[in-house]
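Hi C.,

You asked whether I'd gotten around to modeling the 268-residue construct. I have! Everything is below, sequence then structure, no commentary in between.
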Amino acid sequence: MPATGTFPEIPLFDLRLDPEDVEAVMEVLRSGWLTMGPRTAAFEEAFAAHLGVKHAVAVSSCTAALHLSYLAAGVGPGDEVIVPSVTFAATAAAAIYCGATPIFADILGPHDLSLDPADVEARITDRTRAVDGGALRRLPGADSRASGACAKTRGIALIDDAAHAPDADVDGRMLGTWGLAGAFSFFSNKVLACGEGGLVATDDDEVASLARSLRSQGMSSGSWSRFTGATDSYDAVGLGYNYRLDEPRAALLLSRLKRLERDCRAAA
């Protein structure tokens, strides 16, 4: 992106697409099916395998992924969610969407933007429902082991916010897999980018089921299912949201996922 005014000429991001990426999107446009469908499902399957988790639920943004993850953790009015003091606005905003109050915990310092597990422990109250262990700028973020152990012993859900970290690990375990649910971003300035998009990762069947329902207006079946004849009707079984990821973005993500490791090395 070109600089304007007096800002220095440092690009906000440097997104480079290969010809196969463009062709993957063109195939979707030629297919005539643009909303959530088979390519979204294929990307979810591939990303779940990449992380080593049971479920990956693609959504419209990481903000949506955080919102659904907090809801799955039971966050509601009157609750508190501990979040990093150095983070993006959505980390706290998603808690407010649930009617909860974000509680800001300190980081270890300028040398390490990870959550300070001791400060997390000090800020836990009887209203704490979840801890967000954000991973900022692809750093291995919160000390996931300490924060996770703290949350587990208190009966509190750890939401492993891995927005910037689609290919990072701690001791061989991928970020985004340490808690009840993990949240990822595919915004344009991320390493794995499609413009707008996010994902909920989890090994919990109930969390995945809730996320899949709530991302699409609480409906019991989607448009692709009815189009293919797998179902012939749907019920709105609860209050949901329009958090769907469309097929062109899913196709772009699926194409770019194949060279994620290479792109991460190039960005390092």
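If it helps when you're writing up: The CA atoms of residues 55 and 208 lie 6 Å apart.

Thanks,
B.
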